[in-house]
Every structure is written in C-alpha cells, then in structure tokens.
C-alpha cells in the first residue's frame, strides 16, 4: 500500500461511492482522505460511511483521514409564480423581503442581513454568476437593481455578494447540528465554509477544541483580503475555486491560488486545491487535457492535496478519477523540473530548534544516501515542519496517537504509522528502522534519519537527529547512549 508520490488525494463520498467494496477500491487506487459532504446525505448515511472508512483502516492497517465539509450559510432567492423568469440586459429588477412569488421585475430575497450590508454600486451574482445585477438603490428590506447580464432566473437560485462582508456567521444552525454530530463520530478534519474573517474560525474553534483540526475554505474575496490572519488561526486551508471564481474575475483565481499555496507551505500547514479538477470525469472515463494540466499545476506549486468532488461522489467513473489523480502526481513528481520548482520556491524558516533540526535532516538526506526521514511526533508538528522542507526522500511519521496519524494523512509526503510510546531514544531508532523496513523504504545497511525530542512524550520538544541503519543488529552494535 505504499504510495509512489507525495501529493495526497481527497475523494468525496456519495451515491457512487457508498459501500465497503467501492470505498476500499478508492483507497487502494490512491485516496488518502475521504470527504463527507454535509450538504448532502442524512446523518445516518454519514455515520455509515464513517464506519466503513474506519473498518477499511482497521483491515489495511493504514490510517485514513476523514474530512467533514460543513455546508455553511446558503443564500438563495425565493420562488417565481411561473417557476422562472427571463431577465433582459439593462432592465430594472427588484429584490425584497416580500414572500409573494416573483415575476420578471421582482423576487423575494429572504436574507435581511444582505440588505443591511448592501450599498449602491454593489454587485449581486445569481446562479453561479450567470446573472449579474448592480444595486442602484437599497434599504433595509429592498434593493433596486439594474440587470448587467441577463438570463433565466428560476426558483431558489444561489446568490453571491462579492463586494461586501456580510454580517453572517460561518456556522449556520444546520452547521452547528452537523458539527456536534461529526465530532461525536470522531472526524479528523472539519472544513469550514463561508469563512470571511479570522473570527469565523475562532468561533468554530471554541466548539471544536482539540477534537478535530479545522480547515478554512477560501471562497470569498473578503477571506482573500485577510488571508494571513485566517491562516494563523487555521490548521489547514482549502482553495475552493468554485465560489471564489464566481465572486472574483476568473483570471484572478490562478495567481491567488499560487499565493495561498505558497503561504501555507511557509506556515507548515496543509493546503488542498479543490473544485472542478477532473469535472469531465463525472461522465467520461478520460479527463480533458486542460484538466490534467490543472491538476499538474497544483502539484508543481507544492500543494499538499488535490480534491475530487462530484467525480468520486456521483460520477460514473470514481475509481478512474482517483487513478488519474494518482498517475498524474507520479508523473509530475518524477519530472526533474518539479524538483527545481519545489526547491526554488522553498522559503527558509529558522526560528526554533525544531526548524533547524528538520532543515538539517533534509540537507543530510539530499547530500548522502538516506532512504527516509523518520519523525517521532506527538501533535504532528515535527512531521509538518519536515514536510514543509519538501525533502527528496519519504517522510515517516511515527506516533502513538491515532488522531495525530489520521490528521497527518492530509499533508504532503507524510506516511503515517501507529507506534507505541517509547522512553529511550535507542528504542525509537529501532522502531523507526522497523517501520522503514515494513514499508519497503529501506533494508539491511540502508540508512535513515531519525528525528525526536528528548525527553520523550512532550509535544514541541524536537531536539535530536541521528543517522541510523535499518538493521537492528547494527543499531545495537553502536555504543550505548
């Protein structure tokens, strides 16, 4: 089950991937993290999929991360008397709180919080931006708009408000119920939708505590503007290009993606690039060349993971989609240009002893014949710092905590192993050598680097590095500690 690439693959589960056999095939094809989309599926379905993943984890002996993606507040217009209406460019159109079914010149927008934030000149986007409105005048219960781009508007289409920060919490009432449910199940990562400000993350953190890691979805222009502050209070980031591409000009998305990925790498926090990566594979067994290039671009940028949504949840070819992701990653990472780009974009961060230890491990591994870097980690921080270095050799994270191992499954290049607590460094070296041999990373006199902290079992104490052989008899032949 050893992966032949460092990139991680996130696969969303749904009707097309809903039983043990299919989910296991997805894992064997290359899925490292399974996403449970809380926008779809009853709690009973979510619980059943969660149980299947944990059974596969037990059957294969490999930790698997589970990501619960909260829906977030959904802004939608009301209904129309005839089910839909055609809007012409340049006409007037009114949004208000009146629940009367709409027609060609008005419809309900049942969100007073939007009217409270609107100002003349603000844009409103309907149905994924296909219809564009500009506010001419507005009040606490209405907005008179000009139709900039017309089209057919139908019942309960989504509304985006890109120009203002809305006075909405990132957690809706539904999200709070879903969050309580998945935390009780034992989810590893929570994806927080509709993040606009760092306070949205800290609000969720007060509920989640240390029971799960929080991944902030960047899908609003406001979140891009205060991204550094959001990153500082998040455990990871998802570049959710779908809504982001609706609310900002599409040509702005690629440079923003690059900037966010680079910032996450520097902070040693995992970043997922998501949305429409292999969209055509919902109905086709083969992706388009442009989609493959899109996936490759994220890999060249150094993203920790790429994500499949409907491709694996509801598509006709879920296994083929995961296999494609896996194969593209293997091919890109074997390209010499990949290493050149990754290493030229590495940003040195040397503020702690642990930073120096992991940087030294990477440099030793690149100048000598080292087969793997093995990290003993309590909280996962040492492994994350090692992954930030993007070393040329595999990273093995050994931890006694299942929660830590599972969360690290999302991070670039980290291969996670459960390990009993150790009290002496020599036994840590022995455990690392056993894991390296078991995983096929080295054998006999092959050498590995072992990173740990003394005294053991204290998070954040990384302070020791040793080059050691994979063979135990050679380890015990060295001088006593």
UniProtKB/TrEMBL annotation:
Q: What is its EC number?
A: 2.7.1.40
Q: Which UniProt keywords apply?
A: ATP-binding, Glycolysis, Kinase, Magnesium, Metal-binding, Nucleotide-binding, Pyruvate, Transferase
| Enzymatic reactions | pyruvate + ATP = phosphoenolpyruvate + ADP + H(+)
Where's the Pyruvate kinase C-terminal domain? 356-467
The residue ranges of the Pyruvate kinase barrel domain are 5-322
| InterPro entries (alphabetical) | Pyr_Knase, Pyrv/PenolPyrv_kinase-like_dom, Pyrv_kinase-like_dom_sf, Pyrv_Knase-like_insert_dom_sf, Pyrv_Knase_brl, Pyrv_Knase_C, Pyrv_Knase_C_sf, Pyrv_Knase_insert_dom_sf
Give the pathway.
Carbohydrate degradation; glycolysis; pyruvate from D-glyceraldehyde 3-phosphate: step 5/5
Q: Which domain of life is it from?
A: Bacteria
User: What protein family is recorded?
Assistant: Belongs to the pyruvate kinase family.
What PANTHER family does the record point to? PYRUVATE KINASE
**Protein name in UniProt:** Pyruvate kinase
Protein source organism: Rhodovulum strictum
């Amino acid at each position: 089950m050893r992966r032949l690439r460092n990139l991680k693959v996130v696969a969303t589960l749904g009707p097309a991937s809903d039983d043990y056999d299919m989910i296991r095939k997805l894992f064997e094809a290359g899925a490292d993290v399974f996403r449970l989309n809380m926008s779809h599926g009853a709690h009973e379905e979510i619980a059943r999929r969660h149980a299947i993943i944990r059974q596969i984890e037990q059957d294969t002996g490999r930790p698997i991360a589970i990501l619960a993606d909260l829906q977030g507040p959904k802004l939608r217009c009301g209904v129309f008397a005839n089910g839909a209406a055609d809007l012409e460019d340049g006409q007037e159109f009114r949004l208000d709180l009146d629940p009367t079914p709409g027609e060609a010149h008005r419809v309900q927008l049942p969100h007073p919080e939007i009217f409270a934030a609107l100002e003349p000149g603000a844009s409103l986007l309907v149905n994924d931006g296909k219809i564009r409105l500009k506010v001419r005048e507005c009040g606490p219960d209405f907005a008179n708009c000009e139709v900039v781009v017309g089209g057919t508007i139908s019942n309960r289409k989504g509304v985006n408000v890109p120009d203002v920060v809305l006075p909405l919490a990132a957690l809706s009432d539904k999200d709070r119920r879903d969050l309580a449910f998945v935390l009780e199940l034992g989810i590893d990562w929570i994806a927080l939708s509709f993040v606009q400000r760092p306070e949205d993350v800290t609000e969720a953190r007060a509920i989640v505590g240390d029971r799960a890691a929080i991944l902030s979805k960047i899908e609003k222009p406001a979140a891009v503007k205060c991204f550094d502050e959001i990153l500082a209070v998040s455990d990871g980031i998802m570049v959710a290009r779908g809504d982001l591409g609706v609310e900002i000009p599409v040509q702005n998305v690629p440079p923003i993606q690059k900037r966010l990925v680079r910032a996450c790498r520097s902070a040693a926090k995992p970043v997922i690039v998501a949305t429409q990566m292999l969209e055509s594979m919902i109905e086709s067994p083969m992706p388009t060349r442009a989609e493959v290039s899109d996936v490759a671009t994220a890999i060249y940028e150094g993203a920790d993971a790429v994500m499949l949504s409907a491709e694996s949840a509801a598509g006709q070819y879920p296994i083929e989609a995961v296999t494609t992701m896996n194969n593209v990653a293997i091919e890109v990472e074997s390209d010499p240009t990949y290493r050149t780009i990754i290493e030229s974009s590495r940003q040195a961060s040397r503020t702690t002893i642990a930073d120096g230890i992991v940087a030294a491990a990477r440099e030793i591994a690149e100048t000598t014949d080292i087969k793997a870097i093995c990290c003993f980690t309590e909280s996962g921080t040492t492994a994350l710092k090692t992954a930030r270095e993007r070393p040329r050799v595999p990273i093995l994270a050994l931890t006694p905590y299942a929660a830590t191992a599972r969360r690290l499954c999302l991070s670039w290049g980290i291969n996670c192993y459960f390990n009993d607590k150790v009290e002496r460094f020599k036994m840590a070296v022995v455990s690392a050598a056993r894991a390296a041999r078991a995983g096929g990373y080295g054998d006999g006199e092959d050498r590995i680097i072992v990173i740990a902290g003394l005294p053991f079992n204290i998070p954040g104490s990384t302070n020791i590095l040793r080059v050691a052989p994979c063979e135990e008899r050679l380890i015990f032949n060295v001088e006593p500690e």
